Amino acid sequence: MDSLAWDERYSGRDLVWSGTPNVFVAEIAGALEPGVALDVAAGEGRNAVWLAEQGWRVTAADFSPVAVQRIEQVARERLGEEAGTVRAVVADATEPAPPEESGRGYDLVLFSYLQLPREPWARALAEGVAAAAPGGSVLVVLHALRNLEEGTGGPQEAAVLHDPQDVLASAADLPVEVVSAQLRHREVEGSDRPALDTVVLLRRRAD
């Protein structure tokens, strides 16, 4: 889908996605010391605003201008006077990331369900790693390829689904260390089997 299609999808009165953070984002990012974060393809900001509630300063980027407006709205509603801790910007995930304001880089770069074919996904990951500060974390949560046959929900196009080893292959030449790479089960309300998600945590090397 292009940005215009996402604009149309986000233009309704109700939120497209849940207002709560992804369970793996809450688990893993919740254990990190709050700092400065970049949420790539942030959608309506469910993870970005949650991070801000935990004490992070967040740049929430999405290529849909309507999504960016929705992020700003959700931040005002949930954060009130602290809404300025979320900076919402229009940006394409496959292009250089919005720079961190101090120039040091981001302590956390988050990819939550950015489902792209292999080559644009690899470009997005490289740009995210480039935006991370030395020692910063890069957290990737994706619908896994194995979810097509073994899980439930999510995109049904194999080309945009990636198992943990696929993410590691995309990261092989990047200046990162692998902290963890797992295929995780995520409970889905109303389904008799879980969704299968790829959850990878990388750390930007200092060199």
Explain this structure to me?
With 207 residues, the chain is an alpha/beta fold. 31% of the residues lie in helices and 27% in strands. A seven-stranded mixed beta sheet has the order 3-2-1-4-5-7-6, sandwiched between helices. The model has no long low-confidence stretch (mean pLDDT 91).
Number of strands: 7
How widely separated are the two ends?
A: 37 Å
From N to C, what is the helix and strand string?
HHEHEHEEHEHHEE
Structural class: alpha/beta
Radius of gyration: 16 Å
Specify the biggest β-sheet: 7 strands, mixed
Question: Order of strands across the biggest sheet?
Answer: 3-2-1-4-5-7-6
**Number of helix segments?**
7
Share of helical residues: 25-40%
Portion of residues in beta strands equals 25-35%
> Rough shape?
globular
User: Averaging pLDDT over every residue, what do you get?
Assistant: 91
* Poorly predicted sequence stretches spanning 5 or more consecutive residues: none
